[in-house]
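Tokens in:
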């Protein structure tokens, strides 16, 4: 009996230590090699609340991709303010759209194009595809490809740049083999992405940046300052 108690006690201790170690690994202030990825950025929405963009820019942040729209009619109520204040602070700025599965892609494109201004340089438009917070019905790969094409074609025509596709891990497993061939925004919290046609790497989803209260997604650019300038260049 005592032997069993000792074994269970050691097993429980090991489990607690493993969980604690995993938590520390996940929450650690992980940062990719700065010599390889010198350009840092964030992505934000109204969930980040009021942002002091000058403090953000001073905390080694060079670009921000800001939520503009969702579905066929929703507009992020912090988008216009975030876009102007981030730009005024000297950041390269871009906009992203949360793609819903229950509205036609063409409707969603009209929403995005109507909200995001065209009169000043922007980073390429981003379409965010994920299951969390989305409509419960999941389209087949063929259905998603068709609706995504209906979104991307007018958006690219309006902004003159290839769109970037963001996929969460779960969405990537379901759709990455079928998705339209576009540059990618990779979400990889534990390892550096492999070689491929990716532009941004989201390496943390609970990061901290001066000027933002609470968690924020942290990203790096695939390339240096010249690559960022080229992305933001007006065409």
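Residues out:
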């Amino acid at each position: 009996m005592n032997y069993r108690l000792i074994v269970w006690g050691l097993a429980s201790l090991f489990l607690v230590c493993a969980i604690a170690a995993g938590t520390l690994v996940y929450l650690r202030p992980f940062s990719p090699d700065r010599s390889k990825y010198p350009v840092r950025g964030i992505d934000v929405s109204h969930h980040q609340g009021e942002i002091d963009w000058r403090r953000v820019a001073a905390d080694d942040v060079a670009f921000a991709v800001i939520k503009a729209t969702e579905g066929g009619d929703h507009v992020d109520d912090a988008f216009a303010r975030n876009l102007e204040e981030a730009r005024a602070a000297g950041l390269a700025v871009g906009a992203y759209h949360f793609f819903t599965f229950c509205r036609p892609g063409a409707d969603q494109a009209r929403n995005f194009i109507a909200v995001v201004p065209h009169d000043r340089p922007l980073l390429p438009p981003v379409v965010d595809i994920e299951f969390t917070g989305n409509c419960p019905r999941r389209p087949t790969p063929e259905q998603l490809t068709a609706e995504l094409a209906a979104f991307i074609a007018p958006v690219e025509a309006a902004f003159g740049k290839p769109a970037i596709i963001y996929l969460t891990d779960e969405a990537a497993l379901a759709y990455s083999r079928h998705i339209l061939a576009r540059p990618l925004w990779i979400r990889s919290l534990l390892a550096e992405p492999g070689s491929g046609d990716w532009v941004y790497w989201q390496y943390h989803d609970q990061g901290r940046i001066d000027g933002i209260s609470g968690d924020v997604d942290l990203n790096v650019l695939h390339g240096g300052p010249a690559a960022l300038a080229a992305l933001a260049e007006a065409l």
